[in-house]
Amino acid sequence: MSPGGAATPHERAAASVATHPAPVKMVLDCDTGVDDTLAILYAALHPAVDLLGVGSVWGNVDLETATRNCLHTVHLAGRPDVPVARGADRPLLQTDAVFAYHVHGDDGQGNAGTGRVVGEPVAGSAAEQMVRLAGAHPGEVEIVAVGPLTNVALALGLCPELPSLVRGITIMGGAALAPGNVTEVAEANIWCDPDAAAAVFQAAWTVTMVGLDVTMLTTLDDGHRARLAAGGTLGRYVAGILDHYIGYFAAASFGERRSCMHDALAVAVAAGTLVPEVAPLVRAYVSTEGRTRGQTVCDLRGMYMGYPEQEGARCQPVLRTDPAFADEVVDLLVAAGDAALPVTPVDGPPAPAASAAGPASSSQEHA
Ligand code: BDR
Ligand code: CA
């Protein structure tokens, strides 16, 4: 209950779905653009998730914008208790950060954000927070990374035993059989920082890879937006930020007004609320060189034999999920009702984004 006694968005959302006796403790790492916002809302609102912390990372937008959007989103969900830590502002080894404002809008919220700056990031980096929260709950924390893997690679550098401390790691990233969305073969989160991704794939854990194979096939359209807009102010906000995003995908990918959902799928797979229909355990590596830089190369040669066991297999690319998951996300956001913050834009100019100080920037072709 809120201090005034009214139900919170979290309580309303929780009441709308089946109970989950043991929510998954989660640390979510995001480059908060539009689809990351949905992922944070899902994690903050769904009772199957115990959201311990959020880390921001450069990617769709510069780090300051991503951090501001992470904070704004947890506050919208009525979850100011969720700590947000600021992460890396550029890739591990490259000097240039390449952003995707053309996909996510200058504010990372489809140019439809409120411009409201709420809350403060906690002390310490996102990588430090990841390590600290994993250490506080050994064997229980699922890391869910839905942006470039820079923070996760930094966390592995700080704590090489991190893989044995966590329950697992799930990423939105990569493409096992699907084409890439930045190059012919590279997906944006991996392409942004292939060196970090390679370190994460090489570490001693199994990476659940929720990539373009499934995230391009779970889509949101104007029908979903209409349902969201008819809900409370939270749904109205999400319908607003999706407009520009859907417009981008209409032109770049689908030829009609719909967008992929991407990041929320990784949260749901990690939480067990979206059960993969096909997800073989296979060997995989990230290409860091030449024309295929950023490609996730998965050994799927066992496909025609039902994926027999492979020695050294430590990646689970998710190859099929139910596209109807999009409706579940919409239902949850509608059930949450009104946001815990006003969703009307604040007066004055929008907060700086594309021109924010930071590493050299240019635009990804797709994301
Ligand atoms: C991924 O790249 C980012 O732009 C999206 O937020 C998503 O995480 C899709 O390739
Ligand atoms: Ca993302």
Mean pLDDT: 94
Strand order of the largest sheet: 5-3-2-1-6-7-8-13
Q: Given the structure, what is the number of helices?
A: 14
Q: Write down how many β-strands occur, each being a DSSP E stretch of 2 or more residues.
A: 14
Helix content: 25-40%
Radius of gyration: 19 Å
Structural class: alpha/beta
The backbone outline, from C-alpha atoms, is globular
Low-confidence stretches: 349-360
Q: Which labels suit this protein?
A:
367 residues; alpha/beta; eight-stranded parallel β-sheet; binds beta-D-ribofuranose; binds calcium ion
Give an overview in words.
- With 367 residues, this protein is of the alpha/beta class.
- It has 14 helices and 14 strands.
- Strands 5-3-2-1-6-7-8-13 form an eight-stranded parallel sheet, sandwiched between helices.
- Strand 2 (49-56), helix 3 (63-76) and strand 3 (84-86) form a beta-alpha-beta unit.
- The longest helix is centred in the middle third of the chain and has 22 residues, at 233-254.
- It starts with 8 loop residues before the first helix and ends with a strand.
- Mean pLDDT is 94; it is low at 349-360.
- Calcium ion is lined by residues 30-31, 35-36, 60, 146-147, 263.
Short description:
The chain is an alpha/beta fold. The protein is built from 14 helices and 14 strands.
Topology:
Layout: H1 9-15, E1 24-30, H2 34-45, E2 49-56, H3 63-76, E3 84-86, E4 97-99, H4 101-104, E5 122-125, H5 126-136, E6 141-145, H6 150-158, H7 162-165, E7 168-172, H8 188-192, H9 194-202, E8 207-210, H10 212-215, E9 219-221, H11 222-229, H12 233-254, E10 258-260, H13 263-271, E11 284-286, E12 296-298, E13 315-317, H14 325-336, E14 361-363
Parallel strand pairs: 1-2, 1-6, 2-3, 3-5, 4-14, 6-7, 7-8, 8-13
Antiparallel strand pairs: 9-10, 11-12
The structure holds beta-D-ribofuranose and calcium ion.
